[in-house]
Amino acid sequence: MRKNSVPYWLLSPGILLVSVVLLLPLAILFVASFWGMAQGGEFDTSLTFANYQKMLERPGYATIFLRSIGISSAVTLLTIALAYPIAYYVAFDVRHRKILWLVLITLPFWTSYLLRVFAWKVILGWNGILNSGLVSLGIIDQPIGILLYNPLSVIITLSHAWATFAILPIYLSLEKIDRNLLDAASDLGDSPWRSFLRITLPLSMPGVIAAALIIFIPTVGDYITPALVGGPDGLMVSNLIQAQFGRANNWPFGAALSVVSIACVTLLALMFTAFARKLTARIH
User: Fold this and answer.
1) pTM confidence score
2) How many CA atoms within 13 Å lie on the side-chain side of 106?
């Protein structure tokens, strides 16, 4: 066996597993998206573009796609904006027991994701903790209903649920920054803010980019949170896909929705990555 072929043999089990577990189901999903439904709930395997044509003819589907992308983008921006200061504090200001801080950051994941969503439902509800507190303080006269069952409640819940996935990659990027660079910038007269913009932020961009992709891609396909706290105005494309595979029993159309969703997310992720790289190079 040649030495240069050893890495490929070592990677072959993982490649085979990915091919079977991921690529094969995607291929089946893609083929099924060109099928139809016959009477009696049977698949009509003759190839057709009717499912994709249906999406183009009905603007409601495009609205749900855009809403899903908008909610996921808002979640990504909000989560990174909240996560960056925490990651910065742990990386630069915590001198001892950093492992304790990291454990505390991951503490919410010691409970079920479903329980955390229900917790936010209790907090944002009509008689929830937030409304009750505002009424008790005299800030409002009666509970307000805009806190729950809308896109805002979905954004808040998802931002909390995915916060740890943003903090950790940003923290790792910040932790790798050579502190001598910051000391040199300070000796040369840079203010802390200017040093942050010129050194810390550009060098931490790989972590920010990774966090953005880790959050954006899964949240577009999140089903539980929109179903529990989104209401009619907060439903996303994942809920529509689930309905096609469930109540509607139209698997080919659900497959077509899934294919379009995967294609849109992949395209947006590639565009964001290219833009982020150019922005990082320009900052440098």
Assistant:
1) 0.88
2) 8
